[in-house]
Design goal:
Length: 344
Protein backbone atom coordinates (compact mmCIF):
# COMPACT_ATOMS: atom_id res chain seq x y z
CA UNK A 1 0.00 0.00 0.00
CA UNK A 2 1.41 3.37 -0.88
CA UNK A 3 0.92 6.28 1.44
CA UNK A 4 0.55 9.74 0.00
CA UNK A 5 3.04 12.13 1.55
CA UNK A 6 1.93 15.69 2.07
CA UNK A 7 4.38 18.18 0.60
CA UNK A 8 3.24 21.62 1.80
CA UNK A 9 5.30 23.49 -0.79
CA UNK A 10 4.08 21.41 -3.75
CA UNK A 11 0.49 21.59 -2.48
CA UNK A 12 0.77 25.39 -2.38
CA UNK A 13 2.19 25.46 -5.90
CA UNK A 14 -0.89 23.50 -6.95
CA UNK A 15 -3.14 26.12 -5.40
CA UNK A 16 -3.88 24.88 -1.89
CA UNK A 17 -3.42 27.50 0.80
CA UNK A 18 -1.66 26.15 3.91
CA UNK A 19 -2.32 27.19 7.51
CA UNK A 20 1.27 28.45 7.67
CA UNK A 21 3.04 29.18 4.38
CA UNK A 22 5.83 26.82 3.37
CA UNK A 23 9.22 28.50 3.17
CA UNK A 24 12.45 28.26 1.21
CA UNK A 25 15.13 30.85 0.53
CA UNK A 26 16.23 32.00 -2.88
CA UNK A 27 19.90 30.93 -3.31
CA UNK A 28 19.69 29.07 0.00
CA UNK A 29 22.94 27.22 -0.68
CA UNK A 30 25.85 29.61 -0.91
CA UNK A 31 28.55 31.77 0.53
CA UNK A 32 26.74 32.90 3.71
CA UNK A 33 27.25 29.29 4.94
CA UNK A 34 30.78 28.41 6.20
CA UNK A 35 30.30 24.79 5.14
CA UNK A 36 29.57 25.98 1.58
CA UNK A 37 32.80 27.96 1.52
CA UNK A 38 34.65 24.82 2.68
CA UNK A 39 33.11 22.52 0.05
CA UNK A 40 33.68 25.16 -2.63
CA UNK A 41 37.45 24.77 -2.11
CA UNK A 42 37.23 21.17 -3.33
CA UNK A 43 36.34 22.34 -6.85
CA UNK A 44 38.74 24.10 -9.23
CA UNK A 45 36.08 26.64 -10.09
CA UNK A 46 32.41 27.37 -9.57
CA UNK A 47 31.14 25.48 -12.63
CA UNK A 48 33.10 22.39 -11.62
CA UNK A 49 31.16 22.53 -8.34
CA UNK A 50 27.92 22.56 -10.38
CA UNK A 51 29.09 19.65 -12.58
CA UNK A 52 30.30 17.36 -9.78
CA UNK A 53 27.21 15.54 -8.45
CA UNK A 54 28.88 14.52 -5.20
CA UNK A 55 29.75 18.16 -4.35
CA UNK A 56 26.57 19.67 -5.78
CA UNK A 57 24.42 17.27 -3.71
CA UNK A 58 26.43 18.12 -0.60
CA UNK A 59 25.98 21.90 -0.99
CA UNK A 60 22.29 21.51 -1.87
CA UNK A 61 21.73 19.61 1.38
CA UNK A 62 23.72 21.98 3.62
CA UNK A 63 20.92 24.51 4.23
CA UNK A 64 18.43 21.66 4.82
CA UNK A 65 20.59 20.33 7.67
CA UNK A 66 20.52 23.69 9.41
CA UNK A 67 17.04 25.03 8.73
CA UNK A 68 13.47 23.78 8.71
CA UNK A 69 12.94 24.40 4.99
CA UNK A 70 10.04 23.01 2.94
CA UNK A 71 12.02 22.81 -0.28
CA UNK A 72 15.39 21.94 -1.66
CA UNK A 73 16.60 23.73 -4.78
CA UNK A 74 19.04 21.98 -7.06
CA UNK A 75 22.50 23.52 -6.78
CA UNK A 76 23.54 24.71 -10.21
CA UNK A 77 23.45 28.04 -12.06
CA UNK A 78 21.39 29.65 -14.79
CA UNK A 79 24.55 30.01 -16.91
CA UNK A 80 25.12 26.28 -17.37
CA UNK A 81 22.94 26.63 -20.48
CA UNK A 82 25.28 28.88 -22.49
CA UNK A 83 28.16 26.75 -21.24
CA UNK A 84 26.34 23.64 -22.51
CA UNK A 85 25.67 25.33 -25.87
CA UNK A 86 29.40 25.78 -26.41
CA UNK A 87 29.78 29.34 -25.11
CA UNK A 88 32.13 28.78 -22.15
CA UNK A 89 31.36 30.63 -18.90
CA UNK A 90 33.98 31.59 -16.31
CA UNK A 91 33.29 32.92 -12.84
CA UNK A 92 35.90 35.31 -11.57
CA UNK A 93 35.92 36.26 -7.91
CA UNK A 94 34.38 39.64 -7.33
CA UNK A 95 33.51 39.93 -11.03
CA UNK A 96 30.64 37.53 -11.53
CA UNK A 97 30.24 35.54 -14.73
CA UNK A 98 32.29 36.27 -17.87
CA UNK A 99 31.59 34.95 -21.40
CA UNK A 100 32.88 35.76 -24.88
CA UNK A 101 29.75 37.46 -26.22
CA UNK A 102 27.81 35.95 -29.12
CA UNK A 103 26.80 38.16 -32.06
CA UNK A 104 24.50 37.86 -35.07
CA UNK A 105 26.83 35.43 -36.85
CA UNK A 106 28.17 33.35 -33.95
CA UNK A 107 24.63 32.55 -32.76
CA UNK A 108 24.56 30.06 -35.64
CA UNK A 109 27.50 28.24 -34.09
CA UNK A 110 25.71 27.42 -30.82
CA UNK A 111 25.51 23.66 -30.47
CA UNK A 112 22.01 22.71 -29.34
CA UNK A 113 22.66 19.05 -29.99
CA UNK A 114 25.32 18.71 -27.30
CA UNK A 115 23.55 20.61 -24.51
CA UNK A 116 21.84 17.75 -22.65
CA UNK A 117 24.95 15.57 -22.72
CA UNK A 118 26.91 18.42 -21.22
CA UNK A 119 24.25 18.82 -18.50
CA UNK A 120 24.13 15.10 -17.64
CA UNK A 121 26.00 15.64 -14.33
CA UNK A 122 23.37 18.19 -13.23
CA UNK A 123 20.62 15.67 -13.98
CA UNK A 124 22.53 13.08 -11.97
CA UNK A 125 22.56 15.57 -9.08
CA UNK A 126 18.75 15.82 -9.33
CA UNK A 127 18.43 12.01 -9.20
CA UNK A 128 20.63 11.78 -6.11
CA UNK A 129 18.76 14.62 -4.40
CA UNK A 130 15.43 12.91 -5.00
CA UNK A 131 16.74 9.97 -3.02
CA UNK A 132 18.40 12.08 -0.32
CA UNK A 133 15.75 14.59 0.77
CA UNK A 134 12.81 13.93 3.09
CA UNK A 135 9.62 12.90 1.32
CA UNK A 136 7.74 15.94 2.64
CA UNK A 137 10.32 18.28 1.12
CA UNK A 138 9.71 19.55 -2.39
CA UNK A 139 12.53 19.31 -4.90
CA UNK A 140 12.84 22.42 -7.08
CA UNK A 141 14.64 22.33 -10.41
CA UNK A 142 15.27 25.48 -12.41
CA UNK A 143 16.72 27.23 -15.38
CA UNK A 144 17.27 30.82 -16.38
CA UNK A 145 14.52 32.17 -18.60
CA UNK A 146 15.69 32.88 -22.18
CA UNK A 147 15.83 36.67 -21.99
CA UNK A 148 17.82 36.68 -18.76
CA UNK A 149 20.27 34.08 -20.08
CA UNK A 150 20.52 36.02 -23.37
CA UNK A 151 21.53 39.21 -21.50
CA UNK A 152 24.68 37.38 -20.34
CA UNK A 153 25.28 35.65 -23.69
CA UNK A 154 25.07 38.92 -25.62
CA UNK A 155 26.63 41.24 -23.05
CA UNK A 156 29.37 38.84 -21.98
CA UNK A 157 28.74 39.67 -18.30
CA UNK A 158 26.12 41.07 -15.96
CA UNK A 159 25.25 44.72 -16.40
CA UNK A 160 23.01 47.13 -14.51
CA UNK A 161 20.80 47.97 -17.52
CA UNK A 162 21.24 45.03 -19.99
CA UNK A 163 22.10 47.67 -22.60
CA UNK A 164 23.92 45.40 -25.06
CA UNK A 165 21.18 42.77 -25.16
CA UNK A 166 18.33 45.28 -25.31
CA UNK A 167 20.00 47.05 -28.23
CA UNK A 168 20.73 43.77 -30.00
CA UNK A 169 17.08 42.66 -29.74
CA UNK A 170 15.97 45.90 -31.45
CA UNK A 171 18.73 46.03 -34.06
CA UNK A 172 18.87 42.37 -35.04
CA UNK A 173 15.35 41.01 -34.55
CA UNK A 174 15.90 37.92 -36.68
CA UNK A 175 19.13 36.86 -35.03
CA UNK A 176 17.55 37.59 -31.65
CA UNK A 177 14.55 35.41 -32.53
CA UNK A 178 16.94 32.61 -33.48
CA UNK A 179 18.69 32.91 -30.12
CA UNK A 180 15.35 32.81 -28.29
CA UNK A 181 14.35 29.68 -30.26
CA UNK A 182 17.58 27.93 -29.27
CA UNK A 183 17.14 28.90 -25.61
CA UNK A 184 13.46 27.94 -25.50
CA UNK A 185 14.11 24.51 -27.02
CA UNK A 186 17.14 23.81 -24.84
CA UNK A 187 15.30 24.94 -21.71
CA UNK A 188 12.31 22.69 -22.46
CA UNK A 189 14.61 19.69 -22.95
CA UNK A 190 16.56 20.52 -19.81
CA UNK A 191 13.52 21.11 -17.58
CA UNK A 192 11.73 18.00 -18.88
CA UNK A 193 14.87 16.02 -18.03
CA UNK A 194 14.89 17.55 -14.53
CA UNK A 195 11.30 16.34 -13.99
CA UNK A 196 12.23 12.90 -15.30
CA UNK A 197 15.14 12.86 -12.83
CA UNK A 198 12.82 13.63 -9.91
CA UNK A 199 12.11 17.37 -9.64
CA UNK A 200 8.63 18.18 -8.25
CA UNK A 201 8.46 21.70 -9.63
CA UNK A 202 10.70 24.03 -11.63
CA UNK A 203 11.36 27.74 -11.39
CA UNK A 204 12.07 30.03 -14.33
CA UNK A 205 14.48 32.73 -13.18
CA UNK A 206 13.71 35.81 -15.25
CA UNK A 207 15.97 38.00 -13.15
CA UNK A 208 16.25 40.79 -15.74
CA UNK A 209 12.58 41.35 -16.56
CA UNK A 210 13.11 45.01 -15.67
CA UNK A 211 14.06 47.93 -17.93
CA UNK A 212 11.80 46.79 -20.79
CA UNK A 213 9.03 48.74 -22.48
CA UNK A 214 5.77 46.87 -22.90
CA UNK A 215 6.44 45.65 -26.45
CA UNK A 216 9.91 44.40 -25.48
CA UNK A 217 8.47 42.76 -22.36
CA UNK A 218 5.91 40.92 -24.49
CA UNK A 219 8.44 39.70 -27.05
CA UNK A 220 11.47 39.07 -24.86
CA UNK A 221 9.88 37.88 -21.62
CA UNK A 222 6.25 36.80 -21.99
CA UNK A 223 6.47 34.94 -25.28
CA UNK A 224 9.55 32.77 -24.52
CA UNK A 225 8.27 32.01 -21.00
CA UNK A 226 4.90 30.93 -22.40
CA UNK A 227 6.60 28.73 -25.01
CA UNK A 228 8.63 27.01 -22.30
CA UNK A 229 5.58 26.34 -20.12
CA UNK A 230 3.62 24.97 -23.10
CA UNK A 231 6.48 22.95 -24.52
CA UNK A 232 7.24 21.49 -21.13
CA UNK A 233 3.62 20.48 -20.50
CA UNK A 234 3.51 18.67 -23.84
CA UNK A 235 6.26 16.46 -22.44
CA UNK A 236 5.37 16.48 -18.73
CA UNK A 237 1.58 16.89 -18.43
CA UNK A 238 0.60 19.55 -15.88
CA UNK A 239 4.24 20.25 -15.02
CA UNK A 240 4.18 22.75 -12.13
CA UNK A 241 6.13 25.93 -12.90
CA UNK A 242 7.06 28.97 -10.80
CA UNK A 243 7.77 32.11 -12.83
CA UNK A 244 9.96 34.80 -11.27
CA UNK A 245 9.96 37.85 -13.54
CA UNK A 246 12.01 40.16 -11.35
CA UNK A 247 11.12 43.79 -11.93
CA UNK A 248 8.04 43.02 -14.04
CA UNK A 249 6.08 45.54 -11.92
CA UNK A 250 2.98 46.64 -13.88
CA UNK A 251 3.40 43.63 -16.20
CA UNK A 252 3.04 41.03 -13.42
CA UNK A 253 -0.64 40.20 -13.93
CA UNK A 254 -0.35 39.83 -17.67
CA UNK A 255 2.82 37.75 -17.32
CA UNK A 256 0.95 35.31 -15.06
CA UNK A 257 -2.11 35.09 -17.28
CA UNK A 258 -0.21 34.80 -20.55
CA UNK A 259 2.49 32.32 -19.55
CA UNK A 260 0.30 29.95 -17.53
CA UNK A 261 2.77 29.58 -14.67
CA UNK A 262 1.30 28.06 -11.50
CA UNK A 263 3.04 30.45 -9.13
CA UNK A 264 4.22 34.02 -9.48
CA UNK A 265 7.47 34.94 -7.73
CA UNK A 266 7.26 38.51 -6.42
CA UNK A 267 10.35 40.69 -6.04
CA UNK A 268 10.73 42.80 -2.91
CA UNK A 269 10.11 46.15 -4.66
CA UNK A 270 6.56 45.13 -5.62
CA UNK A 271 4.04 46.71 -3.24
CA UNK A 272 1.98 44.20 -1.27
CA UNK A 273 -1.29 46.05 -1.88
CA UNK A 274 -0.58 46.04 -5.62
CA UNK A 275 -0.19 42.24 -5.57
CA UNK A 276 -3.44 41.97 -3.64
CA UNK A 277 -5.39 44.13 -6.07
CA UNK A 278 -3.78 43.12 -9.37
CA UNK A 279 -3.65 39.33 -8.98
CA UNK A 280 -6.58 36.96 -8.38
CA UNK A 281 -6.41 35.49 -4.89
CA UNK A 282 -6.50 31.99 -6.35
CA UNK A 283 -3.06 32.62 -7.89
CA UNK A 284 -0.28 31.31 -5.64
CA UNK A 285 2.46 33.85 -4.95
CA UNK A 286 6.02 33.42 -3.68
CA UNK A 287 8.02 36.07 -1.86
CA UNK A 288 8.93 38.73 -1.07
CA UNK A 289 11.19 39.88 1.81
CA UNK A 290 14.02 42.27 0.93
CA UNK A 291 17.25 40.25 1.51
CA UNK A 292 18.70 43.32 3.21
CA UNK A 293 16.10 43.01 6.00
CA UNK A 294 17.43 39.50 6.60
CA UNK A 295 20.96 40.91 6.87
CA UNK A 296 19.90 43.56 9.41
CA UNK A 297 17.46 41.34 11.35
CA UNK A 298 15.49 42.45 14.43
CA UNK A 299 12.53 44.75 14.01
CA UNK A 300 13.57 45.72 10.44
CA UNK A 301 13.05 42.07 9.53
CA UNK A 302 10.15 40.95 11.73
CA UNK A 303 7.90 43.92 10.98
CA UNK A 304 8.03 43.26 7.23
CA UNK A 305 7.77 39.46 7.64
CA UNK A 306 4.52 40.04 9.52
CA UNK A 307 3.20 42.45 6.88
CA UNK A 308 3.93 39.92 4.13
CA UNK A 309 2.27 37.10 6.08
CA UNK A 310 -0.76 39.33 6.65
CA UNK A 311 -1.02 40.55 3.06
CA UNK A 312 -0.99 37.03 1.61
CA UNK A 313 -2.91 35.18 4.33
CA UNK A 314 -5.98 34.77 2.12
CA UNK A 315 -4.22 33.08 -0.80
CA UNK A 316 -1.77 30.24 -1.46
CA UNK A 317 1.56 31.73 -0.42
CA UNK A 318 5.12 30.41 -0.38
CA UNK A 319 7.29 32.53 1.87
CA UNK A 320 10.63 33.51 0.33
CA UNK A 321 12.94 36.42 -0.15
CA UNK A 322 12.21 38.86 -2.97
CA UNK A 323 15.67 38.14 -4.42
CA UNK A 324 18.70 36.00 -3.55
CA UNK A 325 20.21 35.81 -0.07
CA UNK A 326 23.49 37.74 0.17
CA UNK A 327 26.83 36.45 1.54
CA UNK A 328 26.89 38.75 4.61
CA UNK A 329 23.61 37.33 5.99
CA UNK A 330 23.93 36.14 9.63
CA UNK A 331 22.84 32.53 10.03
CA UNK A 332 20.96 33.38 13.25
CA UNK A 333 18.71 35.72 11.30
CA UNK A 334 17.78 32.94 8.87
CA UNK A 335 16.81 30.76 11.86
CA UNK A 336 14.72 33.59 13.31
CA UNK A 337 13.03 34.24 9.97
CA UNK A 338 11.96 30.63 9.54
CA UNK A 339 10.73 30.38 13.13
CA UNK A 340 8.63 33.51 12.64
CA UNK A 341 7.09 32.25 9.40
CA UNK A 342 6.32 28.92 11.04
CA UNK A 343 4.77 30.66 14.04
CA UNK A 344 7.29 29.41 16.57
O1 LIG B 1 19.37 28.81 -4.83
C1 LIG B 1 20.26 27.96 -4.74
O2 LIG B 1 20.78 27.62 -3.67
C2 LIG B 1 20.65 27.22 -6.02
C3 LIG B 1 21.75 27.72 -6.72
C4 LIG B 1 21.71 28.97 -7.61
C5 LIG B 1 22.89 29.68 -7.88
N1 LIG B 1 22.61 30.62 -8.82
C6 LIG B 1 24.20 29.40 -7.27
C7 LIG B 1 25.28 30.39 -7.36
C8 LIG B 1 20.69 29.54 -8.37
C9 LIG B 1 19.22 29.19 -8.40
C10 LIG B 1 21.28 30.57 -9.13
C11 LIG B 1 20.53 31.41 -10.08
C12 LIG B 1 21.20 32.52 -10.76
N2 LIG B 1 22.48 32.60 -11.19
C13 LIG B 1 20.53 33.69 -11.15
C14 LIG B 1 19.07 33.97 -10.95
C15 LIG B 1 18.74 34.40 -9.57
C16 LIG B 1 19.12 35.79 -9.24
O3 LIG B 1 19.87 35.97 -8.27
O4 LIG B 1 18.67 36.71 -9.94
C17 LIG B 1 21.48 34.52 -11.79
C18 LIG B 1 21.23 35.90 -12.38
C19 LIG B 1 22.71 33.80 -11.82
C20 LIG B 1 23.98 34.21 -12.46
C21 LIG B 1 25.08 34.30 -11.48
N3 LIG B 1 25.65 33.21 -10.85
C22 LIG B 1 25.74 35.46 -11.05
C23 LIG B 1 25.41 36.87 -11.49
C24 LIG B 1 26.71 35.04 -10.14
C25 LIG B 1 27.77 35.88 -9.49
C26 LIG B 1 27.23 36.74 -8.43
C27 LIG B 1 27.58 36.17 -7.10
O5 LIG B 1 26.67 36.07 -6.26
O6 LIG B 1 28.75 35.85 -6.93
C28 LIG B 1 26.61 33.63 -9.99
C29 LIG B 1 27.44 32.77 -9.15
C30 LIG B 1 26.74 31.89 -8.17
N4 LIG B 1 25.64 31.12 -8.45
C31 LIG B 1 27.14 31.62 -6.83
C32 LIG B 1 26.23 30.69 -6.32
C33 LIG B 1 26.25 30.05 -4.97
C34 LIG B 1 28.35 32.21 -6.16
C35 LIG B 1 29.59 31.60 -6.76
C36 LIG B 1 30.68 31.26 -5.77
O7 LIG B 1 30.51 30.37 -4.91
O8 LIG B 1 31.75 31.86 -5.90
Amino acid sequence: MSTVVHKPMLATVLGQRQERPPVWIMRQAGRYLPEYRETRKQAKNFLELCYTPELAVEVTLQPLRRFDLDASILFSDILVIPDALGQPVRFETGEGPILDPVDETSIDGLEKGRALDHLAPVLETVRRLRAAIKPEQTLIGFCGAPWTVATYMLGGRGSPDQWVARKFALQHPQAFAKLMDILVETSVDYLAAQFEAGADVVQLFESWALNLDDAAFALQVMEPNRRIVEGLRERIPNAPVIGFPRGAAGNLARYAAYTGVNVLGIDYATPLDFVRSALPNTLPVQGNLDPLRLVVGGEAMTSQVDRILGAFSDRPHIFNLGHGIVPETPIAHVEQLIARVKGR
